[in-house]
Amino acid sequence: MKKKNLRFYIRIYFKILAQDLKSKMSYRADFIISTIGMILTNVSGFIGFWILFRNFPSINGWSYHEMLFLYGFSLVALTPVQCFFDNNWNLRGNVYSGDFIKYCFRPINLFFYYQSEVFDIKGLGQLAFGLGTLIYAWIKLGLAVTPLMLLKTLVFLLTASLIMIAMQNAAAAACFWIENSFYVLDLAMRFKEYAKYPVTIFSPVFRFIFTFIFPIAFIAYYPSLVILRPDEVPVLSWLSPVIGIVFFYVSYKIWMRGATRYSGTGS
Amino acid sequence: MSAIIEIKNVTKEFKVLNRREGLKGSLRDLFSRDYKTVRAVDNISMTIEQGEIVGYLGPNGAGKSTTIKMMTGVLEPTSGEILIGGVVPYQNRTKNAQEIGVVFGQRSQLWWALPLIESFRILKDIYQITDADYEGMLKLYRSLVDIEPLLHKPVRQMSLGQRTLSDILAAFLHNPKIVFLDEPTIGLDVSMKAKIRTLIHALNREKHTTVILTTHDMGDVDALCQRIVIIDKGKMLYDNDIEHLKGFFGAYRTLKIRVDGDLKAQAEEIGKALPDCAVSADEDWISVLVNEEKQKVMDVLAQLQKTHRIRDMQLEEISTEEVIKKIYEEGVQ
Amino acid sequence: MNLKKYLTLTRAGMIEALQFRLSFVIIAVGNVLYLIVVYFLWKSIYASAGTDIVNGMTFSDTLIYLVLATALFNFMEMYTVWEIGRNIQSGKIVLDLLKPIEYRKYLFWSYSGSFVMQFFLTFLPTFLIVAAVTHGTIPLGINLLYFIVSVILAVSINYSIDYIVGTICLYTESIWGINIMKQVIVLLLSGATVPIAFFPEGLKQFVLHLPFQSIYNAPLTILLAKDPAPESVLRTLGTQLFWSLVMMIISKLFWKVSLRRITVNGG
């Protein structure tokens, strides 16, 4: 057996991903409606945001455009989890029906194989919307456009993504241990709604909780500070890339442990 | 010949929740729970050689699936040892997966919306099959079945028979050492069943692949298996070749005769005359089940000819199905 | 109407809901986190605004409004669209249609069990906590009775809308897309995400003429009114009753027409 290196996995990834796109093309109506639904979700989220700021010029020292930046940042950061890890939503159903077992028979990494099976193209709409918001806020705030700034943005967007992916993996893996784990995943998804707000609005106790226990503040707030307020970046912001990688690794381990523990229901 | 599967004293236990009944029971379950341990597989041992086709039989819930899941590395045994080609499957799942193929009943492992050939191409990459081996395998498939119409058809548009056939071909594609087939002919019509049996037999012969077959269809067993293993309630009941099985409850044969007059009354009469045989009657025939170890069928026939005018007769061997049914119902003494 | 056969469905639903004790804990954690986020977010919003009353609503009013809107949402969400969609795709709907109960009723009563559980396990505790936290902001009097009547009407409107959207699944395979569109539109236009009082005037008038505001805005406005004029309560309840009847008729007709289509096409 040949060694399975990164190139092998990349090739397989695109092979399997291509099949998913081909399958989706055969359900065109579903694809169009889902895309519209996704766009509507983003638009309505934005309208809610806009209505709020019509009434209040700033929140806790955060101006409209700064909040908008945070909003766009979180949308872009949530794109990878939407695009590449969407199959997590089907995990519970697969485990419950016993279909999950078919993934266990292949000679490649289980987590990789499972996640590669679905690419959610709808996430690209969110990406476009988020990028638009981010760029608009960037210009309005008069932030500099330097290679360093762009690099920082990229790195910290990836960081934020990793943290969200980690949360979703861990939440999805709950189905290996408990029945009806839908609520766990649903809860993790609600976190991303809260990620849009600066953690400074909370009292110190809850600031601690939302930083270290439910690390919602890492999804957008801490990473975006590096770009948004370069003069007052807390240590936690600089640490967030490391935290992101560690979280992702831990969530991967949890997921895999759940999968190996999995025994399949019925025959 | 060398052992490809070695199973030694394997046991698997599950913890299951005892649910209480009714609304009150559910409310109580909310606060205190009651678990019990179920032994799905109980101290099973067997050795299987490369190239064998083994029928793995047992009633529903006997522990067949659990054993197969342990052999494929999906489940870890509670105790005991399993070696598949010298590898512990649970510890080396991916390595083991390279050497096995699996077809799990009606649960297709193919890509639903894609033509079969696309699924094959992905599998070729996943299992790292060389171009030469891949082409060789397709050539073999072409010589065995008419796959051309299947190759370009999306799996979801296939009939159940075509899908099963495709799933079996996909399982053999990377030339695994062992293929596990779980109920491969369930729900298929007679001619499709025959086609699939022929295919499995041919692939086993050509590639010397070990096949572990679980089924409830004794037609599959008769057509394919030299050896059968039977388990029930997790315990091994039988492990030997199929010829031996037929003599297991004694050498039974059924003599059927047709006579004039009221069959029921005469059957009763014959039953009294032949205390060693079980006699019954249906609308056309009187059936006499003879244990050849005690009494030869020819002697019985001769005896009956003295008392009755026999208009027609048939001789039936006991079928595998009947033996298996007897084992399920009565166990092995 | 033989009530017993419906109550059997309610009881079965309650037993089913009780099977998953962990989900109660998770739902509770999720709700508490949500309460915390909403509390601090609006606290800092009002702190930044500099006035106590914005658009006629105090901080306590807004908090109660939003928290109870979410509690009502959790309580009313019956996943009807999912259920209908899935039953259509799996073909199980044929079996359900053969049952000697009208499908619309069958579905409703099957879910009424988790309804009852949701009410006692999430809505009531949330209500009590909020009432205690904002001590005295919720007037405790005859308005509670109006509120209950209003909620019942809201449940009916919500169910009819869900049923209409579920029926659309007979025409398209896109359950997710349709469901997300419905959810987004209902939540925004009903005032569940931002109170309708904060909407700009034009949008407010528009939204007040749609059925959605009868789901969340109507019962919550009735609940929070200090000394409501009987006419205004009657007008609100009257509007709800109107929409409840209209939506019920539409949903029944739409289902009937659509079903005929299926029977003709052979499903």
What features would you highlight for this structure?
heterotrimer; A: 267 residues; two-stranded antiparallel ribbon; 13 helices; C: 267 residues; mainly alpha; 2 strands
Rg of chain B, please? 25 Å
Shape of chain B: globular
CATH-defined topology of the largest domain in chain B: Rossmann fold
| Backbone structural class of chain B | alpha/beta
Low-confidence parts of chain B = none
Helix/sheet category of chain A: mainly alpha
Question: Topology as H/E string of chain A?
Answer: HHEEHHHHHHHHHHH
- Low-confidence stretches of chain A at least 5 residues in length (pLDDT < 50)? none
Number of helices of chain A: 13
User: SSE string of chain B, helix = H, strand = E?
Assistant: EHEEHEHEHHHHEHEHEEHEHEEHEH
- Report helical residue fraction of chain B: 25-40%
Per CATH, the superfamily of the largest domain in chain B is P-loop containing nucleotide triphosphate hydrolases
Number-wise, the strands of chain B total: 13
First and last CA, distance of chain A: 31 Å
Question: How many separate domains of chain A?
Answer: 2
Mean pLDDT of chain B equals: 85
Strand content of chain A: under 5%
Average pLDDT figure of chain A:
85
Q: What is the level 1 CATH name of the largest domain in chain B? A: Alpha Beta
Shape of chain A: globular
Explain what this protein looks like in three dimensions:
The complex is a heterotrimer of chains A (267), B (333) and C (267). By secondary structure, chain A is an all-alpha fold. Chain A is globular. In chain A, 72% of the residues lie in helices and 1% in strands. Chain A has helices at residues 6-25, 28-55, 64-77, 79-84, 88-97, 101-104, 110-116, 123-141, 147-173, 182-194, 204-213, 221-228, 235-261; strands spanning 58-59, 62-63. In chain A, a hairpin with a 2-residue loop joins strand 1 (58-59) and strand 2. The longest helix of chain A has 28 residues, at 28-55. Chain B is an alpha/beta fold and 333 residues long. Chain B has two domains: 3-246, Rossmann fold (3-Layer(aba) Sandwich), CATH 3.40.50; 252-330, ACT domain (Alpha-Beta Plaits, 2-Layer Sandwich). Chain B is built from 13 helices and 13 strands. In chain B, helix 7 packs parallel to helix 8 (190-207). The two termini of chain B are 32 Å apart. Chain C has a two-stranded antiparallel sheet with strand order 1-2. Chain C is globular, with a radius of gyration of 20 Å. Chain C has one domain (3-265). The A-C interface holds A 27, 29-31, 33-38, 40-41, 44, 47-48, 51-52, 54-61, 178-180, 182-184, 186-187, 190, 194, 197, 201-203, 206, 214 and C 19-20, 22-23, 26-27, 29-30, 33-34, 36-37, 40-41, 43-45, 47-49, 54-55, 172-174, 176-181, 184-185, 187-188, 193-194, 198-200, 203.
